[in-house]
Amino acid sequence: MNCSGCGFEIDSGFAFCPKCGAKQPVACTACAFPCPAEFAFCPKCGTALGLVDANFQPSSKQNDGEPRGAHRLSARHNDVAPPLSPAINSEADRRPITVLFADLCGFTALSERVDPEVMRVLQNELFEELTAAVESYDGFVDKFVGDALLALFGAPVAHEDDPERSLQAALDMLERGERFGERWQQRIGCPLKLHIGISTGPVVTGSFGAAGAKSYSVTGDTVNTAQRLQAMAGPGEIFVGPLTYQLTRHAFAFDGMGDRVLRGKASNVVVHRLVGMLETPQTARGLEPYGLRAPLIGRDAELGRLVSCLDLACAGTPQLVRLMGEAGIGKSRLVSEFLARISEIPRFAEVTIRQAVCSPLGEQPFGTLGKILRSAYGISAKEPFEKAREMLSAAFRGLGLGPEEIERVTPAFFHVVGFGDPSGALQHVPPEQMRRQIFYAVRTLMEHRLSQGPLLLIVEDLHCADSVSLEALRFLMDRIERDRFMLLTTQRPAFETHQLESSRTSLTAMRLTPLTLAEGQKLLAEFFCVGNRGLPADLRNRVLQRASGNPLFIEEIVRGLIDVGALRRDGTRWQIAVEGAGSEIPLSIQAMLLSRVDHLPPDVRRIAQEAAMIGPTFDAGLLGAIASDPSKVEACVDFLCSAEIVEEVRSSGPSASAGYRFRQTLLHDVIYQNLLLQRRTEMHAKIGHAIERIVGDKTESIEDLALLGYHFSQTADRAKGARYLIAAGERASRAYANDDAIRLYRQALDALEGASGTDPELAIAHERSGDLSAPAGRRRAAFEHYSRALDLYTAAEETACAARVLRKMGRLHWDAGRRDQAEAHYSEAAALLERTDAPIEYAHLLQERGHLAFRMGDHASAARWAEEALQSARSLAGEVGPETRRQAALATAEALNTKGVALARLGRIRDAIGDVEASLSVATEAQLLNAACRAYSNLGVLYTIADPGRALDVCRQGYDVAVRIGDLGFQARLLANLAVASCTFTQSCGSEGVPAAEKAIEIDRALDQRDHLSVPLIVLGQIHQCHGRPDLARKLYNEALEVARETGEPQLLFPCYDGLATLHLDLDDIPEAERYFTLAQDVCVRHGLDPEALVVLPFLD
Predict the structure, then answer these.
(1) I need a surface site. Which of 513, 623, 877, 943 has the fewest CB within 10 A?
(2) What is the pLDDT confidence band of residue 625, given thresholds at 50, 70 and 90?
(3) Average pLDDT over residues 369-387
(4) What CATH number belongs to 1010-1101?
(5) Cβ contacts of residue 1012 below 8 Å, gap of 6+?
(6) Cα separations (Å) of 486 from 78, 306, 480, 837?
(7) pTM for the full predicted model
(8) What pLDDT was estimated at residue 242?
(9) With the C-alpha atoms ordered 369, 373, 375, 381, is the resulting torsion angle positive or negative?
(10) H-only helix segments in 564-664
(11) CATH topology assigned to domain 299-511
């Protein structure tokens, strides 16, 4: 490490610098913040300094009690005391990491001919070199096996760029290995070469071993793959696995090695050989590699403020602008857009721009200032000293510095840019004096630059800057007055930069907030709606929900889908190639978020994990009931709020105490997935039992039931969870929250999958799912659910239940225009009911058969079936439960509807209206809104002749109900009737009638409602015919006729024939008109129908 005062290299254990005597900072054990030695508590997180987590178990193989590489940075990466990572968590977890295996080629043969004592010295020296390379990039040395080293990047502490760090460490190892081999070749008489394998993927971490010999390590296929890649690599080669390649190809060059067979692996692995770093790395994030780029969204106000601040600076009021936000929120993009904006504004033409981006690996002393100078004058990191001296001298002369000034400041700037003191000019200068001379040189350079024009200085990722550069910047800010200067910094919210604030500058602090839902939608539209139809709506909503308004997260989730082939471009449209895609968290985001969690104090991290087990939203009361240490809940939750990991919300939890939610959905998911499966199972059971104690076992709340169902379904007692979920689904269904009900039933089915002894719950869940899938237009899914339920009921000899499912399947067949299959299912159901006493189900079946008879034109039989259904429903005796009463009401309402429309066709209009109104009354009182919609639909037709003033109102009322319950089928029916009423009784045929008919057609086609599609086609055809558009009318009539012939329903066939006949008559095509009139007459004769009745009452259901 380096002394924080003079930069002299000192041992990591030194408390004082042996050169300048400066006392060294102490790194906080919780958050790694470098604290002055006299501090007793960390000013950033409040942790007492010098205290070690009681749960920390040092590895037995380390003399200093600390794991190798857990918290060290080499001297070239940091100038302060090593930033300690949090103490290793003794609890095991799951996490994605990058594993590196390094080994000497030919070690076994070498061991046979070299003395063991010499080999010991060789191995120790090799391990020192390899360990230094690993620790230089914040890696963790897991173990040494023979001559091999196993290193981890991402455990025990994650970083945003662990795969890149592992490759940089591997290249460093090869360089060190070359020098090591040259030193030892003279002693052992043969060359020494390393070969390295690297793999990225999931592992389980924790303590491994027996009793007191346990130490921190990892296990998983990722480790095995890295070892196999290392064995395959030749001398001096680095082989990487497919995921490592995918995550680092933007910054490193590779040679493809093709598919390779790795010993012990079931399938081939795509292997790449690392060549080196790219001279010009590409962007690691976002969708630009796929040619997708969007304008800046949702940052217009911030962009305007930046421009205003620069205006003030150019007018002589120095500005300090702090741009804060979480990783991925868009700080760098805003800076980029700001620079592009001012480049187009003439008044800023004279502004000089200097820019530096701090490294996440940390900076050497004055490293941030060095980057500013290097970028300003084009000095690369590998620039020869002589050329760099010429470039600096030329730059200084251009700023107006005289020869003496140049000679005075040049040694200081050589030190700043990383060349040290090659001339020896500073060798006798004390450290503190050297620091002052560097500050003086920087001030001199700044004054000459400002004398030539305004200066905009940008420092990105200031939280990674070295402390000496921060002091130098503050030194400059204190000496600026009426200068045309603006310092723009970007940083994470937790980083404090008050040391840069000065009374001589105006401070502007801007916090970038997450994008709103509308802004997120606009961002995706910019990416995917240029020249194509955009992302599917369900995927779009899923992505935005998970990303929580973070632009980078939005792009990375979509990029992950493209990378794995789940989202593919098909011509001008992006399509989902894998259903359910979008649930995986991209590794780039996992590492970013896991890094935040790893740097939490141990107690806070544990509380965050327990909160995540409850869910994205949790309440403090429940958390206190299940926490491992309830006494720490309040303080730890406060800490999480301060760290902006959770935020307080209105409580909706079972305990009615303070409510909280994770600020980012993905952060919650990462914390949850970080836990071992066994711990999840145990915690879910603990949470479920705690909720039962709080709400009792007879709760009626959908939220409580769903919460209980979720937690118990993740335990060994999945059936219990499924029962709660089914109960929640039934209550949601009765409240007509059908989407929620479908989701709850799906969760119940997932919980029951593979569980034994759960057939009753499984059958119920499948039947309920079928009930809700059909009205939502998912007929195929409904058939599948019903078929599975029928098998389960039949196997359990539940005769009435099997008959009920057969009846429902019959109705689905009729809706699809399959009359014969519908009748077959009804007959099979009737045969089953003959063997059991089930009057309500028998009433349902009688009503369905009456409904079918009506649709086929047998109106007398329809009225008879409906009357028998009513009698069966009334035959219940004694006390019955609420569900039986509900089913009796449903059968009654439907039977009255069927009887009413049958009587209407038989000419008994008054009686028909009375029965359908009675149906609506029964359905409304019992909250049977689907049945009510059918009554509204039929009344809309019947009122056209009996009470025209009410026809339009009843259609609108019914449509509103259908929309509220999400029944698309009835929406189409009521829209068709609304179109008829609008065009018949109002002047709004064009504005309301036509759109209603078109929308009904759209719904019927989408749902494949062959039993109804003809109706809106006929209605729209009649409208076009009345408005003198015969070609459109003919097209619609012909399509309607084609569909009507599938079902053979007379009330649909007749208006098709009649419409085509009158259309041809209008066109003076008498032969065709007569042909269609004859066909229409035949339909009426064959079914005993009155043509006038079909004209007046065309479409009844």
Answers:
(1) 877
(2) very high
(3) 76
(4) 1.25.40.10
(5) 969, 972, 973, 976, 1004
(6) 27, 10, 10, 87
(7) 0.69
(8) 92
(9) negative
(10) 587-598, 602-614, 620-626, 633-642
(11) Rossmann fold (3.40.50)
